[in-house]
């Protein structure tokens, strides 16, 4: 273990996996299903508030160009909260995952959150969310082009349906939305590619090194803060961003503090979900949350609406669950087979009882 400490991180062989926590309450002793349900409901709660605050911030006139500065403040909040949690509650800020892995995670985290935040200024919010539901498309294209992977017919069908649904949603958006801007589509597409990568990178790192959520958030967002700060200096956006936020402190720093706080809890909960259930289940839950976010967005904020949003959204939803079914085909088939077997057994039992009653009636 001494050599591991000299290298700057702790050996995973000398430590048990971190406890399963829900807002710092240890729920490791709970059965798996209540754990999963409690964490999933908490993810819904915090990210619905997150979505509302994110859209509300960009309702401020003139906010459009300052998405990256907003991301910088978010990253600082995440870093401070995670350090406080590790230092005061966990009792140490030890690192288990190597620096080179954290630099990789930080890069994808910055790309995902920064481009996603920046795109809100240029897109209708439901369009931004529907794009974030479609990680399968870049994953599939990357697998074919980079790794030479071969995919089954269901995966390809899901990707085609997803692309078709996105195209219909984008077409509807271009017709009715006053915020339509191709720049926003480029940003959210690049964010989507980074987001498709980051889940698997995080899952592998956390399982390999038994790292806690707090550690992953602290180091990845602290490094990410440096990346964004340097980027804002080199692009010359830091002074103008600082001036704009200082001019509207309540609507910028105030709302961002709420956004960053609920986002921090949300990130921790998603990481917990990844650790206990895997990246695929976590993606399924966050996708369902995004679908509800879209409905809330139309309900809470006045914006143009067309029925084409509904049909295109349903096509994307169908594609998502085709992909989920394909990844868990054996489990799904076993589940439905058990239901069918029980149905047949109960039907046979019911029919045999009816036959017995008929025989008794005839005898009488």
From TrEMBL:
Its main location: Golgi. It is a multi-pass membrane protein. The chain crosses the membrane at residues 36-54, 66-89, 101-123, 153-172, 184-201, 221-246, 252-271, 278-302, 308-325. GO terms for cellular component: endoplasmic reticulum membrane; Golgi membrane. Keywords: Membrane, Transmembrane, Transmembrane helix, Transport. The keyword Transmembrane helix applies. Pfam families: UAA. GO terms for molecular function: 3'-phosphoadenosine 5'-phosphosulfate transmembrane transporter activity. The keyword Transferase does not apply. InterPro entries: SCL35B1-4/HUT1. It is found in: Golgi apparatus membrane. Belongs to the nucleotide-sugar transporter family. SLC35B subfamily. This is Adenosine 3'-phospho 5'-phosphosulfate transporter 2. It comes from Meloidogyne enterolobii. The lineage of its organism: Eukaryota, Metazoa, Ecdysozoa, Nematoda, Chromadorea.
